[in-house]
Amino acid sequence: MELRQYWRIIYRRLWIIILLPLVVLAASFVARPQAAHGSVANLRLAVGITPENGEGKFFTYDRYYTWLTAEYLADDLSEVIKSRSFADEVSKRLGGTVAPGAIQGSTVAQKLHRILTVSVSAPTDQQALDLGNAIAATLRESGGQFLAQLSAQNAAISVIDAPALVPAATSLRQKLDLPLRLALAIVVALVLVFLLDYLDDSVREASDVERMGLTVLAEIPK
Q: Does the predicted TM-score (pTM) go above 0.70?
């Protein structure tokens, strides 16, 4: 079948290819879930180990093991921040206005070498900042008891960046959802157009008559 014949089939029922994506587009906007309104605040922390004081001549490996220990400690501390006991301390600092379970669910800690980035989410900007400040204060003032749980000695936690609001990022799935729906609607429309043409036994062109074994003597143009 020539390309011109394909185009005739598509053009004959072009309204299907236009209408179906429009219906999918309208349905996607009507049925899309409401975006959750909320705020996110980030704070960054540095975890370090105070080098041991020693006397005499000995090789210190240029503090390699000190930095390596700090990295392991930061890794463990990221899990402590997500614990129930830590959430209890933060909740007490907030006067019990936020439940420990809610603090656990809204706190995410990510580690890169000796740096911890803690993200907290809340319904409003002020609540996100209050929660971030409470977490930072808990680590500064009560961090020793959590470090003691990790058997850490001479460890220190310092705040690099105070809690600050960050824009909520749109996930890749949300970005691609509508384009994929429209692409699928176009594909389905094309399949439907060719299926209807296959089932249609109407005679529209001279080639339709010739395929039936008949000879075309004349053709009346439009």
A: no
